[in-house]
Amino acid sequence: MNEHRGEVDVRLGGASYVLRYDANALVLLEHESGITVTQLATAGETALNGVIGIKFIRAALYAGLKGSNQRLTIERVGEMIDLMQLGYYSQQVAKALALAMGGPGGNADAPGPESASPGAGTGNGSGGPG
């Protein structure tokens, strides 16, 4: 596990996995849960701890695990979920999402696009006027 990369350990179905949300995982989470990343960021961790249901937890675990487990299906994640551990899963998902979005415990100090050097990303390869 590497928290600097947004990775969080999660125990699921008797095994340990790494939960991580990159852009693809967040798109998959939006698709599977029907909740946008903007809504998640606005709701914050409080929403995950008690308001979000099992559909969201299953979708969040699936999306966060899929990047490193391409053969994984959402149905398989559902089979591995221990219903007595929903609070634990919510905490791990909230932690991984916070790391991904730069929230508490996240990577808020990482340089954003506004700190890029002049000419960076112009596409002409020279960094200067095209």
Features:
single chain, 130 residues
Describe this structure in words.
The protein has 130 residues and is mainly alpha-helical. The protein has one domain (3-102). Helices cover 45% and strands 8% of the residues. It is built from five helices and two strands; from the N terminus they run E-E-H-H-H-H-H. It has helices spanning 23-33, 37-48, 54-66, 74-80, 86-101; strands spanning 8-12, 15-19. The chain has a two-stranded antiparallel ribbon with strand order 1-2. Helix 2 packs across helix 5 (86-101) and helix 3 packs across helix 5. The longest helix has 16 residues, at 86-101. The protein is globular and about 30 Å long. It starts with 7 loop residues before the first strand and ends in a 29-residue tail after the last helix.
Let me know the number of strands.
2
Q: Report the order of strands and helices.
A: EEHHHHH
Radius of gyration: 17 Å
Average pLDDT, rounded to a whole number, is: 78
Alpha plus pi helix count: 5
Distance between the termini: 43 Å
Strand fraction equals 5-15%
Structural class per helix/strand content? mainly alpha
Helix content: 40-55%
* Biggest β-sheet strands, sense, barrel: 2 strands, antiparallel
